[in-house]
Structures are given as C-alpha cells and as structure tokens.
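Notes on consecutive records. When two proteins share a document, each keeps its own sequence and its own token line. Never mix them. Below: protein one.
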Amino acid sequence: MRIGLIAPPWIPVPPPAYGGTEAVIDNLARGLTALGHDVRLFTVGTSTCPVRRQWLFRSPAEPMSDAAAETAHVLAAYEALGDADIIHDHTELGPLLAGRCGLARPPVVTTVHGPFTPLARDRLAEVARYASIVAISHAHARSFGRVPVAAVIHHGIDLDVYRPGPGTGGYLLFVGRMSPEKGVHRAVRAARAAGWPLVIAAKSRNDAEHAYFEEQVRPLLEPGARRPAEEPLAARLELMRHAAALLNPITWPEPFGLVMAEALAAGTPVLAFPNGAAPEIIDHGRTGYLCRGEADMTAAIARVPEIDRWRCRTAAERRFSLTRMAADYERLYRAILERPGQRVPSRTGTGSG
C-alpha cells in the first residue's frame, strides 16, 4: 500500500525535544514500513524520520500555528502525495482545505490530536464530509458528540527505545508542558507533602508558560532551585527509567497523554488524576494510581512500592507498542479502501497491485 503521511509544519519528525504529535507520526511511519508498506512523509526539511520525505519548508515554519504557512504546507502536501493509495493527514487545516478546494486526491484519514472544543465542532463536522476521523482515546471520541468517528486508535511508542529501568533514583518525575492544566504546581505540592524530591522536565517556551512558572511553580521550589529544563529524548528516557513514579495531575480532558505510556514502558508507575484518557492508560492499583486530588496523590506515593515495575512494562508491550498502532491504522486504511468504488492496493509497499 502506498501511504502518504502529512505532519504539521512546526516541528521536525521525530521531534528533537517536546512534540507528542511528531513522535507519534515518526512511530507510525516506521511501524507501517515494517509492515511492508511504501510510506512517504510530507514534513519539514530538518526531519530525520527514516522514510522517503518531501517538504515545502526546509526549516520549521514560524510562528507556530500561522494559518498562511499551514495552508501553503498542506496544499503542497496534497499535490505531492496525490498518487498515494491513501493520505493520512495529521494537520488541522489539511482535510478541510483539501475537501473544500476539491483537490483530486485519494481517500483521506485524519487523526485529531487535540481536544474537541466548541470552536472545533463546525470545522470537524465539515472535515467528516471529506475524511475519516480518528480519535486517540474513547474519552476523546465521546467528546465529539454527533461528529462521526471512524476509529479510536491509541498511540503507540517504540519499545526498543523506551527500555525498562530500576526506578532506584530516589525521586519522582514530572514530564510535560509548563501549564496549569498539566498540574505542575500540584505535582510539586504532592511530592513535597510525601517527602520526596520531584524532578521536573517541562517545555516552557511561550509567555504564558513562563508566567505560570513564575507565579505558581517557582514559589513552591526551594530557594535557588534551577529552572526546569526541556530535556532531549535521551536524558528524558534516563529520568523515566530511574524515577520511582511519574506524577501526572492533569486537570483537563487530555485526549491521550503519551508521557504516561512512555513511563509505563520504562517500568515506571504513573500517578494521575482520572481525567481524559488517563483511566484508559493506567490500571488502578496495578500500573499506577488514579488519584482524586492532591491529598490522594500524596497518599498514593507511599504505595508506589506495591506496584510491580515489570507489570507496567508488560502493559505497555501489550497495549502501547508502535506495532499495534500501525496494525490498527493498517486495518482502518484497508476498510476504507475496500468500500465500493475504491481501488484495493496490494499489501506490499510496491504500489497498488
């Protein structure tokens, strides 16, 4: 099958640091290639994903979310991938523009990586006329209301990269964006109440993130504590492998939460608030704890030694591998292509057959 993947134009694939969507696209591209498909990725020129790549922008487009840049990027992508058997678009504007412009194209699948909001409702209802929509958790899909969802497919990660660790570093870990909905300040308070040090690896680039840190997080830290850094992948992996547990006190309906699956792959239990997809990722009492508030999370920290780290790893292998994710998408692609009037491609990566 000839599969065209379209990434957003803001971050290389794979991402050098923070970039959940781009990490998923990289895993999917490699997983589909391993299944024997011919995968092409439309991205930015600095990407290193090991499949055939095309781009309009050699460097990531700035500023992020600029509508003109995204429009140019996706129109070029649909033109470049017009001979694919199916296009899988991970951008926001791409499926809508392609449908509205009446571009000659193969069937389109689009994965919605962000939350479903009232502002997005009309756009996604229109997108559903032209593309098959994928949600990334059942909680995510339920939020779509009457907008049709073709499939629910959990993200998958490279289990050869995320290797299990001993968890003997003597610290708890937070990984994510420096933002109120991610609950960094709550993680700091829960860890302090439990008497544990907390290592924070957080993206903090824009003004809102800087302001949140200064106003709500810094006052909770020890005097002279260094500003939390956005760690590259290798350093983040080591932090996860040696952490006693990952704290994820999210206060919003996060569509998936890739960091939780990554922690489980490292053998690290996850303590999270039960919002969004967290109950679909964490098995309460087996791979972590779903906590009803900061006090509950503090109490759960004392119970972390009861969690078998190998059970966490096994859960990741069973449910969150890139192989499973690629197979789920392959199944969806084939179901779409087998609809009446569609040409059914061969399984191999040599084309349509």
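Protein two starts on the next line and is unrelated to protein one.
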Amino acid sequence: MSVITTLEHSARRLFPDWSLDRVLAELLLERAQRNLIKYQVQHRHFEEKYEQIFDEFRRFVLDSEAPFEVEQDYFDWELAVTGIQDMQEEIARLKNLEHTL
C-alpha cells in the first residue's frame, strides 16, 4: 500500500464522514493550538522568572551588558512572543477555512 493510500485509509477510519481537506485542516488546527499553548507557557515562565513583561525585559537587555544566560532567555522569550502571535494568526486562518469545508 502506498503512503497516500495508507493515510487516506487512516483518515477515513479516524474521521468518518469528513472530507480529506477537513481532516487536514482539523489536524493542522490541533497542532497550531498545541504550539500556542507551548509558547504561552514559555512566555509565562519568563514573566515569572524576571517579574516583568517582555517589553521591559527587552529594554533592560538592549540597554545593558546582560550575561549570556540572560541574553539567551531574551531570544527564547522573543521566540515565544513571536510564536504566540504567529499561532493566533494561524488558528484564525484555519478556523475561517473550516467554515468553507
């Protein structure tokens, strides 16, 4: 059995009565929602660790000679903030798509 055939078979068994487009959209939505949660958890972790919001922390790092660990946290925190925005946009896009399927 080819990969495509196997995937189609599994999709039909796991999501009966759904089109393959709808199955793919739902799986992508679930992944985007999991990613959003992961980024939100990272964001909250850094807020608690540094007891400030990201913009304040960014100013501190950019205006100082921050140690390597603090700079690394800055990059990781910035990735989390950016990831939250990206995943929110992706979720909205996928939810809008669901209405057409």
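For the record: The chain has one domain: 18-98.
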